[in-house]
Amino acid sequence: MHLKIMAIEGVPYAWLHQLQEIYADVFDGAHLPLEKLASKEGLLCMLAVEDNELIGFKLGYPHPDGVFYSWLGGVRDTKRGQGIASQLMIVQHKHMKALGFQKVRTYGRNTYKAMLIVNLKHGFDIVSTFIDDKGRHKIIFEKLVE
Predict the structure, then answer these.
(1) Are 54 and 13 in contact (CB under 8 A)?
(2) Parallel, antiparallel, or unpaired for β 68-75 and 103-108?
(3) For the purposes of burial, counting CB atoms within 10 Å of the CB of 137, is it exposed (0-12), middle (13-18) or buried (19 or more)?
(4) What CATH number did the domain enclosing 108 receive?
(5) Which segments cross the bilayer (predicted)?
(6) Domain span at 129
(7) How many helices (H) and strands (E) does the chain have?
(8) pTM of the model
(9) Structurally, how many domains does the chain consist of?
(10) pLDDT 10s digits, 22-78
(11) Which of 5, 28, 3, 32 has the alpha carbon at shortest distance from 18?
(12) Are 84 and 2 in contact, with CB atoms under 8 Å apart?
């Protein structure tokens, strides 16, 4: 396995098709509209690439309150359980720290237990919960980046 993690600022157009495939697999067939990606000012994309194939991604952007928001992520089903999500998170945190951010926030749902566990293993604290506009219970995680 020759894994490379790339950081791309803005929409990763060259990888968009493969990113959409992984997104649909992770999020029950859902589609991530290009307009939604393009609307995120300061979008930072971490891409895990193996032999010219996108196998995972982690997207985030600056939140208006000055915290970096780790928004979306996923790993191809055939590559899960190999620590790729952890590697993407570590690289994302290094990049956001280099950009001057000291705190990262992410939301999780009980539906995605593996991601909840990854967040806790990497030092995130549960700071709150809420019900989103679709009636889903969400957990808010935050971490100071060292």
Answers:
(1) no
(2) parallel
(3) exposed
(4) 3.40.630.30
(5) none
(6) 3-144
(7) 4, 7
(8) 0.93
(9) 1
(10) 999 998 888 998 999 999 999 999 999 999 999 999 999 999 999 999 999 999 999
(11) 32
(12) no
